[in-house]
């Protein structure tokens, strides 16, 4: 083992952070770029399902909250692309990989938002699942990713509470509003469980990512944590989770739950979900529409750099 490898292994073993200045094995760099890029893409594509309701939010207050939430997701994408850049990735190339289908984003954002109750359920379940998955990532071994995750988790907590509060309000409303919430819960529950990824025995990356302390828990452990957390919240809300096999297991000290349709997850990940084509087409259009902004920003940066050089030359 070389000196560099020994230093890397010792840093991981001591639970210290790997920083951009440190040497890392190529496999670690690739895994980190893959996970961070997929995560960043998810945040940016994840703006679309809820963005769909900004112009139709039922009040000024709901519109302001939703606008702030969707803007937060854009911010999360930016921190994450910046973290990927510290590993030598190029943001433009990552975006190209997304829109050409060579990199993934979370399956959950390929489902449609049919009613305003979906906005509440995304906050409650989707942001809830995201928090469950991401709080342990605040202790991930790669410093820039772990630090980005701290702020992201704080903001996701606000997102989850706004979703739950929205749903509580609807549940105190008319029967039609309560039915709308139940319908949204029925549609989002199983896809939310799929967010945690394939089961452990079909997860090719988990073992190595755990050994490198990128991931701190397996997909199934986090999925179970999410189910245990959501059941009492559903009871308080007054909705039924669409799983007849959901039952407290006193021996395991966890809720048992029914089988997940893994074929559906595979289909959605491989591009055949209800909204995959629409999501990518929108992202591609936004990227092309933004071409002139990127050009202008680069021209401005070049002008400033020239100005600075000229300024220094004058002083000298
Ligand atoms: N969808 O071996 P594993 C959010 C892929 S952000 C699509 O288990 P790993 C905030 C996986 O990447 C949501 N692909 O992989 C928000 C791998 O791909 P490969 C995103 C999936 O990495 C809320 C392959 O399958 N969060 O919600 C999915 O060890 C509201 C094999 O899987 C993150 O990205 C899936 N559900 O574990 C925004 C968190 N599951 O190797 C807007 C960070 C798996 O073929 C509104 N990421 N795959 O390239 C992680 O924790 C991990 O990457 C996992 C997957 C747990 C997602």
TrEMBL record:
Gene Ontology biological process terms from the UniProt entry: phenylacetate catabolic process
Q: Which UniProt keywords apply?
A: Oxidoreductase
Please give the Gene Ontology molecular function terms for this protein: phenylacetyl-CoA 1,2-epoxidase activity
Q: EC number(s) for this protein? A: 1.14.13.149
Q: Which InterPro entries match?
A: Aromatic_CoA_ox/epox, Ferritin-like, Ferritin-like_SF, PaaA, PaaA_PaaC
Q: Record's GO cellular component, any one?
A: cytosol
Q: Which Gene3D superfamilies did the record assign?
A: 1.20.1260.10
Q: Does the keyword Oxidoreductase apply?
A: yes
- What class does this enzyme belong to in the EC scheme? oxidoreductase
What is this protein identified as?
Ring-1,2-phenylacetyl-CoA epoxidase subunit PaaA
